[in-house]
Structures are given as structure tokens and as C-alpha cells.
Description:
- The chain is of the alpha/beta class.
- Helices cover about 40% and strands about 20% of the residues.
- The model has no long low-confidence stretch (mean pLDDT about 95).
Amino acid sequence: MLDVGDLRILVTDHGPKDGPVVLMLHGWPDTAHLWRQQIPALVQAGYRVLAPDLRGFGESDKPDEVDACRVSACAGDAMAILDDVGAERAHVVGHDWGAAVGWALALSHPERVHTLVALSVGHPAAFANGGLRQLKASWYMLLFQFEGIAEEFLSRDDWAMFRRFLGNHPETERWIGTLSKPGALTASLNWYRANAHPRRLLSHPNRSTACTVPVMGLWSDGDVALVEKQMTGSADHVTGEWEYHRIEGASHWIPLDAPDELNRLLLDWLSRHP
């Protein structure tokens, strides 16, 4: 457990202490357990893997304040994790909200990010330019703004709507188990309330904010929440090296649905960026 301000963050630490550091950041509604099929492969290759439960998730503290779940605050947690192990920089791998945190860290503190691997979620400006298809795919973000209503809608009748919403993915029972803990569902939804409020539709993304670190983007053709354009469009906002891979036959949860292909791509990418 790592103390970050008033919060305690659970960080799992795997592999050789002197290995190159890989920081793995999950999204909604996951925990660090999302990476269970990637961590052994990375450790076997000699990497030190740090995989936290992000604030509001899993065994980490769940702040009551919505603003406490801003992506910028979570990027600060990531830097605190690196500081705690004495790592000047790390390869950052993020999925879903974890990818958003990875982008934020790479944009605000590029000196701490050796490379970024963004799964599913593209550069924030590219996401904002995703067009009507992305807005339609993001319908649930509006639902999640309604405090109390969203919680009941998802969890009532033995989480019936949650199950339907996530397509009865094999991981569903595990997600329900973690989100059923006191305060967990609200804390997880606060990520959307802090970072995806409808007022953001009226703001203009900072197009001048370019990512200078090497980035590999991955998107899966079974992702119903994110369109491919918001990932491929990230190329326009990366001045460092950019590489893109489309994963066929996987849902939004690439680490769970295509673990072998993801591991192959990760190990290849990392070996080319020592």
C-alpha cells in the first residue's frame, strides 16, 4: 500500500527489482487483475511490472469527492508510484481510463515516460474529434452522470443492466464482486463524472498538445464503446514514433480476449525500445 496524500493506493510489484519498469494502468470496471495474463510474460522477459488498483477501484481508497478522480490526479499517483521505487521513467501501458491516464502522464511529464502503449483509448484531442459515431458509442457516459440513478440502474435486479451493458463478458462476475463493495460503484462512476461531463462537449481540445514520446496504439474491432477513428487519429497528435495495431476478434477488453497477441506486441515493442 502506497500513501499518496490522504489516499492509500494498492500497488502490485512483480519481477526483478533492477529490471526496466513497466507501469500498467487498468480502466473501468477493472482492477490490476486485468493484467494477470500479461504480467508473467513481462516478468519472464526481465521487466519489473508495477500494476496498481487505480484510486476508486479494487483495494485502493475510494474518495468521496468527484474531483478526486480527475485524470490529472491519477497521473500524479502514477508519478508517486515511480518515485516510490526510484524509477526515473517507465514504459506505461494503459487500457480504457488507464490509457487516458497514460496519455495525461506522457503529455504533462514526458520525461517520466519511456514509451506509451495505449489500449482502446486514443489521444484526448483525437477522442474529441471522433465525430457522431463516437458520441453515439459514448451514450453511457451521459447516464453515468446521474448520481444515484446510474448506480441503481446498473445494480438492480442482480446487476441485470450491468450484465447486458457489458455483454455478459466472462469477467462479469468478478467485476460485480468488486463493485458490490461499499462505495465501490460510485467511486468508479466518479471517473466519468470528473472527466466526461457533458460540458466538455462545449470546450475545445488543446490541439497544440502533442505527445513527444513513442506511442503504440491498439484498438479491437469488437469494441462497442470506442470507434477506430479516435485511435488512428492519434497519429496527428504524436510527434514521436507512432505505431498502430488493429486487434481482430476481441471485445473492448483486449488484455482478456487477446492475451497472446497482446503479449507478442508488447514484448516486441519493449524490445525495440530498450
